[in-house]
Specification:
The chain is α/β, with parallel strands linked by helices. Among the domains are: about 130 residues, 3-Layer(aba) Sandwich (Rossmann fold), CATH 3.40.50; about 100 residues, 2-Layer Sandwich (GMP Synthetase, Chain A, domain 3), CATH 3.30.300.30. The chain contains 15 helices and 26 strands. Strands 2-1-10-9-11-12-13-14-15 form a 9-stranded mixed β-sheet. Strands 16, 17, 19, 20 and 21 form a 5-stranded antiparallel β-sheet that branches. Helix 7 crosses helix 8.
């Protein structure tokens, strides 16, 4: 089911309905369809053809979804790029994706041109594209049917080189349709995006809007006070966010929360939503429902935890999405018994046809390694309980083996995060002459808060087994990628020489 065909149908059925809103800009479905035709004409004049790649190095605003659908109408592939990336990181994506055109926000032009300097890539700013599109032909584009590929989403690269996951129309549309059912969404919803479009969370909300004929309200940047004001002003009913954003919104709500009565649903994707934050959310906004999903760049929806299960099964990722098989496997590939930990494997039809990527862009070896008998090896470790709820324990490569015992870094991180002085933490393993590996905790403290290494260790003793507590605690900011995830490969490198130093 092609994305542009869905857009065209709503342009015909509800032409005057608002499709996109960002601050003072409002775009109806009829305008959405017409303006993407015009932008497609401009890109086509600049040489973009079916199968080409177009990088969108564009900040949040109506320009992003307009350019996204324009590229798709040509049968080309959208490559979302975070505007937080450095010149070096953008240059890597340019070399890997080999795009025909790089579309950039005006303020990012200089960085983009430096990143693209080694090639013959065309760099076009949003203002240049919009000016050219104003007088371009707005005739509908014929729908290309030779390929279903429409997007390349790059992995975060927390432990190595980012890889481009080939995403299809079926991936995006089918995921959205299942979301719409699971989250009880309708054309009457006004859905807010608080995260950058380079993230799957925002793209998923765009496709919820597109498949429903609903309205998407875009925050150009996240600011807690302005987001709350927009929720009231635009009568937002649904918002997609990550737990960090939810916490900042809760901190910013001052007094009576009745002004947010229209907000009925929060959809969370990303890191675990702490139970104390869930309890605080439900107490502050008693009419709100919270759904959280386990998804990744390669898998668009593996499990969902519905609102009614958020407290009773607070630590769970949820139950598998209908149509998605989830298996937990040991190192030999055999299914592990209920309650035991194994690698999470996911299968959903032929890769690319349902909820899994088709493969990695130009990486046949990595694609072959990622799949086994149709199962995608996620690299995540998890367990099922007796009721069929899936719990994610850790990344397989982040598991620490100390004294013959498995230590899951996420469990240690969750324990340390409950310390009142801790803002963020990342846990890795390092070589240890006595136990093989030792636990190292990199800890960022909240502004104005203090803690010593012994405080963190003693706090852990009350929550987790003694052998899991950190042997070393290092305070201060630690390296993260553009999505805010710890770069654990760099942290392991930093921790290499700790065995020669005194422990906690």
């Amino acid at each position: 089911m092609k994305s542009q065909v869905i857009l065209r149908s709503f342009a015909q059925r509800a032409p005057e309905r608002e499709a996109l809103v960002c601050e003072g800009t409002r775009v109806t479905f009829a305008e959405f369809d017409r303006r993407t035709n015009q932008l497609a004409a401009v890109l086509n004049e600049r040489g973009v053809r079916a199968g080409d790649r177009v990088l969108l190095f564009v900040a949040n605003g109506v320009a992003w979804p307009l350019l996204c659908l324009a590229v798709i109408k040509l049968g080309a592939l959208v490559v979302p790029v975070s505007t937080r990336l450095t010149q070096h990181e953008v240059a890597f994506l340019i070399r890997d994706a080999e795009p025909r055109v790089l579309c950039v926000s005006d303020e990012l032009r200089a960085l983009a041109e430096r990143a693209a300097a080694a090639g013959s890539l065309t760099v076009l700013t949003v203002s240049e594209l919009e000016a050219a599109a104003a007088t371009a032909n707005d005739a509908p584009w014929p729908v290309p049917h030779d390929s279903d590929d429409c997007m390349i989403g790059y992995t975060s690269g927390t432990s190595g080189t980012p890889k481009g996951a080939l995403t299809t129309h079926n991936n995006l549309v089918l995921t959205a349709l299942l979301n719409n059912f699971d989250y009880d969404l309708s054309e009457r919803d006004r859905i807010m995006v608080t995260t950058p479009f380079a993230h799957r969370t925002a793209i998923a909300r765009l496709y919820n809007t597109l498949t429903l004929g609903a309205t998407l309200v875009i925050m150009p940047r996240f600011d807690a006070a302005e987001t709350l004001a927009t929720i009231v002003r635009e009568r937002i009913t649904v918002t997609g966010l990550v737990p960090t954003v939810a916490r900042m919104l809760l901190d910013a709500i001052d007094g009576d929360a009745s002004a947010y009565a229209n907000l009925r649903m929060m959809i969370s994707v990303g890191e675990a939503f702490p139970i104390d934050m869930k309890q605080r959310l439900f107490a502050t906004l008693p009419n709100i429902k919270l759904s959280s999903a386990l998804a990744m760049t390669e898998v668009f929806g593996a499990a969902v935890l519905k609102s009614e299960d958020q407290i009773s099964h607070a630590g769970a990722a949820g139950r598998p999405v209908p149509g998605v098989e989830v298996m937990l496997a040991d190192d030999a590939g055999a299914n592990v018994p209920t309650g035991e930990i194994g690698e999470i494997l996911v299968r959903s039809g032929v890769p690319g046809a349902e909820l899994m990527m088709r493969g990695y862009w130009n990486r046949p070896k990595e694609t072959a390694e990622a799949f086994h008998d149709g199962w995608l090896l996620t690299g995540d470790m998890g367990r099922f309980d007796a009721e069929g709820y899936l719990y994610v324990v850790d990344r397989k490569k982040d598991m620490i083996l100390s004294g013959g015992l498995n230590i899951y870094s996420k469990e240690v991180e969750h324990a340390i995060l409950t310390h009142p002085s801790v803002a963020d933490v990342a846990v890795v393993g390092t070589a240890d002459p006595q136990f093989g590996e030792a636990v190292v905790a990199f800890v960022e403290l909240k502004n104005g808060m203090l803690a010593a290494q012994g405080d963190i260790v003693e706090h852990c003793r009350t929550l987790i087994a003694s052998y899991k507590k950190p042997k070393y605690v290092l305070f201060g900011a630690f390296p993260k990628n553009a999505q805010g995830k710890a770069l654990k490969a760099e942290l392991r490198e930093q921790a290499k020489d700790l065995a020669t130093q005194p422990s906690c």
